[in-house]
Amino acid sequence: MVEKKSSIPSSRLFLTGIILLLFSFYYSYSANNLSTSFMVSQNWQQPELRNHDIIVPSSSFEFPSTVFYSWWDEKTFAGSTSCKDVRHHEQEGIWKDPNDGSYFIRKIKKAPNHYVSLHNNDYDPVRFRHIFLTGNYYEHEVHDRFELILAEADRTNITTSRSLPTVVDVGANIGYYSLLSAARQHAVVAFEINPSNLVRLCDSIELNTHFHSDNKEKDPTAFFGPIRMFRNGVSSQHNQTLHYAVPKNPGEASIQVLSEDNKNHRPQLESFANGTSTNDPFFTTTVTLDQFASDHGWQIPTTQNNDDDTSNKDIDIAILKIDTEGHEPYILQGATKLLHSHLIRNILIEYRSHCRDAVFEFVLEAGYVLVDDDKQTKNKRRMLTKEASKDYIDGLQKRGGYTDLWFRLESQRLPEG
C-alpha cells in the first residue's frame, strides 16, 4: 500500500501569492502615505516634531493654549466662541466629540505646511479619505484659487491696511480653508454652527500655534494668523433663533428656509440634518454680515476712489468664502452694504441650480465680476465683463447642478500666478 502525499493545488498557491503581493504593495503605500499623519487614542503631553513630518505623542497630552494677537482688539472678539469655551462644553458633555478621545492629525503636503485635525472615518469619511490618507483636499479648484489670492498680499503689500488681510469663512466645517489662510498669515473670521467641527478646529488652531511658536528661531517672521470662531448661522435676518440638529454627515449642515412671510419678506429658518442626527439639538442665533460688520467696527471707508488703497480701511477682506449647502443666496442678501463698501476683494461661493439669479445680479451691480479659470477650456484665466458674467450665470441656471464661482472686484487686476 502506497501512502499518497497531500498537495495544495497550484491554482491556490498562485492565488495566495497574488494576495500576498497585493498586501505588500498596500502596506508599502500606507506606510509611505501615512508618514505625515498619526492617530492616537490616549491623552498626550508635549508633542515632539521628528523628521519634520511625524508628531510622536507621549502620555497625557494637553493642547497648548491658543495665542491671542495684539492687532485684534476686544471688540473684534465680541460674541466669538473661544477654544476654552469649546473645551468646557466638551468636558461637561454638552458637546460630544465624535472621535471619543482619539485624534487624527494630518500634515498638509502643500506649502505652507500645517496640521489639520480630522473626524474619524465613520463620522466624516470624505475628508478622512482625502485629507488624512493623502494629505490633500479634494476641492482642487477652490484650493488653487485660495492659494492664488492669499499669495497676492505678499506681492502687492495689501497689509498696508490697519489690520492683517482677513478671510471670512462662512461654513468653515473643520476649518480647512481657515487653517490654510492662517498659515498664509491672514486673520480669519470663521462661522460654523456644528459644535463637533469646532472641536476639530480648536485641535488644529492649538497645534499650529504651538509649532509656529517653536519655529520662531528658524524664521522670526513666521506666525500663524489668528482665527476667531463664531457659532452663528449667517443669513438674511439678524438675531433669529435657530434650532439646530447635528447631521450624520457633518458636511451637509445647512440652514433651510421653511416659509417666507410675503409681507415682510422674512424667511422662517431652520437647520436640517440629512440622515440620523448624531447629537441632541442645539440652539443658536443668526447674524447678517452687514450687522456683524457694524457690530465689530468694520467701518466703510469714506472715500472709494481707489480699491487698491487700503490705508483708510479698518479691515481688508481678501476672501469671503461661502459654502452653506444651499443657503448662499440668503447670506448675500444680508451682506448688501458690505458688498457695496468694497471691503471684500474676492467672493468664493458655491452656486446651486435653485439659487435665484437676482441674488447674483446684485453682486454684479455691487461692482464684482466673474473670474473664468476653467481648466477644461483653452482660455487663460480672465475676468469677464459684467454682461458676460450675467450670461454665464444665466447659462448655469439652465444647465442645473452646482459649481464653484469666483467673483472679484471689477476695478482690480487679476492676481499673478
Automatic annotation (TrEMBL):
Protein known as: FkbM family methyltransferase
Sorted UniProt keywords: Membrane, Methyltransferase, Transferase, Transmembrane, Transmembrane helix
Residue ranges of domain Methyltransferase FkbM in the record: 169-368
Biological process annotations from GO: methylation
Keyword Transmembrane: yes
PANTHER family for this protein: EXPRESSED PROTEIN, METHYLTRANSFERASE, FKBM FAMILY PROTEIN
Gene Ontology MF terms: methyltransferase activity
Methyltransferase found in the keyword field: yes
Residues spanning the membrane: 12-29
Pfam families: Methyltransf_21
